[in-house]
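Worked problem 6 (solution included).
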Amino acid sequence: MTVIRVDSDADGERLDTALGILFPERSRSFFRKLIDRKQVLLNGKEAKASRTVSEGDTLSVEFPEAEPLNILPEPIPLEIVYEDADVILVNKPQGMVVHPAAGHYTGTLVNGLLYHCKDLSGINGVLRPGIVHRIDKDTSGIVIACKNDAAHRCIAEQLAAHTVSRRYYALVHGGFREDGGTVDAPLGRHKTDRKKMAVVPDGKRAVTHFRVLERFERFTLVECRLETGRTHQIRVHMAHIGHPLAGDPVYGSGKAPFHTEGQMLHAYLLGFRAPSDGRYLEFTSDLPAHFREALEKLRKRAPVSPL
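Solution. The predicted structure is:
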């Protein structure tokens, strides 16, 4: 029996849809069959596929014995920002998937963590050991993983309470007259493309604060501070106000005046209370080479105006 907690990505979804989000390597129809066979429990009880789940709910899934995945440790070089007995923070490069899923069962951050760490929390199941939050494949920056279940619960509670500090550098299309602002727009699954998020009236509250750092010809470098942490929040919010991220193939044109693999977004700051003693810890990471090179090219094209 695999046990997993519902995270913010699946909060408010139908049971079968939530399982598809939490286990993306499996289809929604696969989970409907398991639910019909009474092989899925919601908080220890049987539930219908249409039952709505909430963040923090516990799902117990009895997968067929022939189908468990063996996620192997791999000697992948990791840039470790900080590590103690409870947590490990890694500066994830652009292009690395955080946890195994369909099409990506090797080379993920989890594969590297399993090689580096003897123990990782088991709350999020075999595919996501230690993973308490994630960033997109083509977003670079700091990710925190937990080494035991107590630490996992502590960090998860901070994330749910929106007390974890998370700041990003984003290169977006267009110019701003203002020097900053706030996007307060609810997010939910796209009505026709369930792999995408969108601003929807019945979505969950999502708040992104932004500040202009540097202006270029046709582009702007901004700092984004997350008040909430919804899936693709910065990418969707910036596109919503007419400033999609440079290189974003999903919410923008995917085009940029330089070579890039996906959106120009870097998680540069992460702050939280240590599970062991409650001390506030904060860590930062420098912009990766591809991001720095893009900014240098833009600076050479036209005069810039730092804030």
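Discussion: The first helix runs from residue 15 to 22.
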